[in-house]
Amino acid sequence: ETGVTQTPRHLVMGMTNKKSLKCEQHLGHNAMYWYKQSAKKPLELMFVYNFKEQTENNSVPSRFSPECPNSSHLFLHLHTLQPEDSALYLCASSQDRGQGNEQFFGPGTRLTVL
Amino acid sequence: AQRVTQPEKLLSVFKGAPVELKCNYSYSGSPELFWYVQYSRQRLQLLLRHISRESIKGFTADLNKGETSFHPKKPFAQEEDSAMYYCALSTRRHAGNMLTFGGGTRLMVKP
């Protein structure tokens, strides 16, 4: 598959569960991003990785734990989430660190926390 | 801190009418502005970036640094333009391309 893929597409979990979201990009990019899209808020940047190094953590609670084993894969590990964490989680990638470089988005994972 | 404002949550126009989306930003550095679009059941994708000055799907926009605005316009709206539109400001911090998004504008083009 080309572009940016995300699995699973839908996830329902309880507050005590541990789950992981996966993102994979097939574009040869070296920067990857996690965003959160809630119903009533603008799209929010959560984490930035560049060449597998986390370069930004946008004040995200520790119950969200990112992992970037290589430039093509990005994970978001979830544990003891709250109902307000229910949202669409988007992964994106871009080439290099250029300010004007386009970000390519995945389809998102719709997360529901019960 | 940077901020992006899209004052209209919903914009409704008739097919063939002109349409202008609005975006205002605040940023103390040198801004790079983008518009992303999300059509129904599709992923977010780039529509415009101010540095390239291209016309994509009939939309054109100029960055107005004096008014800190980046408003794309299209002279004749089409039904297929109906979508969610997001303005985004790119900033450089440490490394990586940081995007700050506006709240989005839903454009509805009526037949």
Determine the most extensive contact between two protein chains.
A-B, 28 and 26 residues
Distance between the termini of chain B: 41 Å
Instruction: Note the total helix count of chain A.
Output: 0
Radius of gyration of chain B (CA) equals 14 Å
Question: Care to describe what's here?
Answer:
The complex is a heterodimer of chains A (114) and B (111). Chain A contains no helices and 11 strands. In chain A, strands 2, 4, 5, 6, 9, 10 and 11 form a 7-stranded mixed beta sheet that branches. Chain A has a 4-stranded antiparallel beta sheet with strand order 1-3-8-7, with no helix packed on it. Chain A has strands spanning 4-7, 10-13, 18-25, 31-37, 44-50, 53-57, 64-70, 73-79, 87-94, 104-105, 109-113. In chain A, strand 5 and strand 6 form a beta hairpin. Chain A has 114 residues and is an all-beta fold. By secondary structure, chain B is mainly beta. Chain B is built from no helices and 12 strands. Chain B has strands at 3-5, 10-14, 19-20, 24-26, 32-38, 45-49, 63-64, 69-70, 73-74, 83-92, 97-101, 105-110. In chain B, strands 2, 5, 6, 10, 11 and 12 form a 6-stranded mixed beta sheet that branches. Chain B is globular. The mean pLDDT of chain B is 90.
